[in-house]
Design goal:
This protein is mainly alpha-helical and 92 residues long. The chain has one domain (22-91). 54% of the residues lie in helices and 9% in strands. It contains 4 helices and 2 strands. It has a two-stranded antiparallel ribbon. The protein is globular.
């Protein structure tokens, strides 16, 4: 069984899933996955291994693609932490 850091809760008998805030380490893992060109299945396994929702993980990878291509590809809603991790990577 996979255990995510976000958990279902009930409110008035309805089920909701609470979000978790991405850590810097998780964001760095997503960057490495993007840079390594992981396949769909490899990225999904990596996300599950770290307790990250795979869909959220793929979106982070797509955000790094956007940063890498100056917005020509990928997603456009870049988070502050993603920009920070990207900037650190670019300085290396």
């Amino acid at each position: 069984m996979i255990h995510f850091r976000w958990a279902p809760i009930t409110v008035g008998g309805l089920w909701f899933v609470t979000k978790h805030s991405w850590t810097k380490e998780e964001t760095q893992i997503a960057l490495k996955a993007y840079l390594d060109g992981l396949s769909f299945n490899e990225a999904k396994c990596l996300a599950n291994k770290h307790g990250i929702n795979p869909n959220s993980f793929f979106m982070r990878m797509a955000n790094f693609k956007s940063l890498d291509t100056n917005g020509k590809c990928g997603l456009s809603k870049i988070k502050k932490l993603e920009q920070e991790v990207w900037d650190e990577y670019r300085k290396i």
